[in-house]
Amino acid sequence: MPIDFQQLMEPALQEGLKGLEKGEVPVGAVLAGPDGKIIARAHNQPVSTQDPTAHAEILVLRKAGALQGNYRLLDCTLVVTIEPCPMCMGAALNARISRLVFGAFDPKAGAAGSLYNLAEDSRLNHRIEVISGVMEKECADQLRDFFRARRGKQS
């Protein structure tokens, strides 16, 4: 049975809202196993934890690794609301996930096709299938609304 990526993006968007409620940039992520069932969920927390590595992708990979008892998350799908940065793509590659699904592109920091394409870099020892643009409008709107509101408060 094929995995429904839109069905997985919806809880990632909900995770983004959890981060938003805490004053974080609203990025959410879920990790699904080979059967498409969610193993772990997370949202951005660098502000609240004072940890620059506390991106949603890193946190969801940490949770899933602990739950699975293995840092290698073979045959898993990482679903995130925005294209991962180089740090998060590096973590995904090290975790050996099979597939990355993301919503909005990140032309300033994206490392899955926009600015860099680490997922398909032949110099690395692992490749990740990338599926982009899933619920792209909803994901982009969530981020855009956050930054518009933030700019409005600073004016």
What does this structure look like?
It is a single chain. The protein has helices at 5-21, 46-49, 56-68, 86-95, 136-154, and strands at 28-32, 38-43, 77-82, 99-104, 129-131. α1 runs parallel beside α5 (136-154) and α3 (56-68) packs parallel to α4. A 5-stranded mixed beta sheet has the order 2-1-3-4-5. The protein is α/β, with parallel strands linked by helices. The N and C termini lie far apart (50 Å). The chain contains 5 helices and 5 strands; from the N terminus they run αββααβαββα.
Give a brief description.
The chain has about 160 residues and is α/β, with parallel strands linked by helices. Helices cover about 40% and strands about 15% of the residues.
What is the averaged pLDDT score?
95
Can you tell me the overall shape?
A: globular
Main β sheet profile: 5 strands, mixed
By secondary-structure content and strand pairing, the structural class works out as alpha/beta
How far the N terminus sits from the C terminus, by CA atoms, comes to 50 Å
Strand order of the largest sheet: 2-1-3-4-5
Fraction of helical residues? 40-55%
Topology, please?
Layout: H1 5-21, E1 28-32, E2 38-43, H2 46-49, H3 56-68, E3 77-82, H4 86-95, E4 99-104, E5 129-131, H5 136-154
Parallel strand pairs: 3-4, 4-5
Antiparallel strand pairs: 1-2, 1-3
Helix pairs in contact: 1-5, 3-4
Descriptive tags:
155 residues, 5 strands, five-stranded mixed β-sheet, globular, alpha/beta
